[in-house]
Write a structure and sequence with these properties.
About 40% of the residues lie in helices and about 30% in strands. The N and C termini lie far apart (about 60 Å). It has a six-stranded antiparallel sheet with strand order 1-2-6-5-4-3, sandwiched between helices. Helix 3 packs across helix 5. It has one domain. The longest helix has 18 residues. It is α+β, with helices and mostly antiparallel strands and about 180 residues long.
């Protein structure tokens, strides 16, 4: 009798867990990373800033809280507008899930940017940046880290811009690895 109850409970758990057909952002990445119409970049934290020692202690801490960035982009190919729209709708639906919280969004000249996060607002595990241009395509970046603070990340980005930190070296490093 005990085995029957255990089997019944296991079956119920399996049934309910399989009913959740909601795709996660990670699953979307994995499913599309091998497709030719997507561009995928995985950037480790060691490539972010070559001149981290030029930053203040707070900015160094913010930079070190970032572990890696995964980028998935879908450029619009000629005659592929319908496919682009379908992919963008799938991605948007995933990001509407209750585990993602909107931090910031803005539009400028037909370009849309939405920044979301997962975790607690002052200790973010994952920061998601979705950029979209209906004439060029979309890109989504997953910024993964430990206890990332959005205010400190924004301060870091301003610091990089104002202190002339060599971010172009990042793009050179990325290109040399592909």
């Amino acid at each position: 009798m005990k085995k029957i109850i255990t089997f019944a409970l296991a079956s119920i758990v399996l049934l309910f867990s399989s009913c959740n057909s909601e795709e996660s952002l990670q699953e979307y990445y994995v499913k599309n990373q091998e497709r030719n119409d997507f561009i995928v970049l995985d950037v480790p934290s060691s490539m972010f800033i070559k001149q981290i020692d030029k930053l203040s202690a707070d900015n160094q801490k913010a930079a070190k809280s970032i572990k890696k960035v995964n980028i998935l982009a879908y450029p619009i190919a000629e005659g592929k507008q319908k496919e682009y729209t379908q992919e963008y709708e799938k991605l948007s639906t995933i990001l509407l899930g209750e585990k993602y919280h909107t931090l910031l969004q803005f539009n400028h000249d037909g370009k849309k940017v939405k920044i979301l996060y997962q975790g607690q607002r002052d200790a973010i595990k994952e920061l998601i940046v979705l950029g979209n241009d209906d004439t060029k395509g979309f890109a989504v970046a997953r910024i993964l880290g430990d206890n990332m603070n959005p205010n400190k990340i924004i301060t870091l980005l301003h610091s990089i811009k104002n202190e002339n930190i060599d971010v172009e070296g990042l793009f050179t490093d990325i290109q040399s690895n592909f």
